Amino acid sequence: MNVLMVDSSKYQVSGLRSQCVVNVDLKTCSCRKWDLTGMPCKHAVAVISDMSRNGIGIGISENWVSKVYWLDTWKEAYKHVIEPITGPDMWTPSECPTTLVPPKHHKQVERPKKMRRKSIEEVQESFDKRGKMTRKGSTTTCRKCGNKGHNCRSCKGQGESQGCLAVAAQEPVSQNATQDVPQATQE
Fold first, then answer.
1. Full-model pTM
2. Which of 3, 36, 124, 148 could be stapled to 50 by a disulfide with Cβ–Cβ 3.0 to 4.6 Å?
3. What residues contact residue 14 under an 8 Å CB cut-off, 6+ apart?
């Protein structure tokens, strides 16, 4: 870095890509790193080394760092001691006449349940010995014939005369047959 003294307190520092102005009295640099961190940036370090080469008294290196980082500042910040306290059983009771209670709980609005809640006995009855749910209390109904006790896969026309096979095999009834039936009932 190339350091050029402009004034007794101002220096111009030029590097490969940047050029900054350093003020030694105010401890600032135009790159603002020294202003923000409180520690000299690379431009300020170049100025300080140039000052020491030229015989300008720079003093100790801690003078260029912000007082925040000094040991005396740290000791001043931590000199106060937080006193220990006793447990809650040794605290004096409060003389405040009111007691703080939590707010009342209200159930949030939600969709109504589709099914009623079953009692514990009803839930336990629906399990078998191995812990699996059973179909106890429900009967299957055939979709083809409408009879109970079987489903449409095992339907073979069981039950009443309106069985599955009978319903499927029915042909459209002729008009003559329909006319005969009412006449027979009229006589």
1. 0.43
2. 3
3. 1, 2, 4, 20
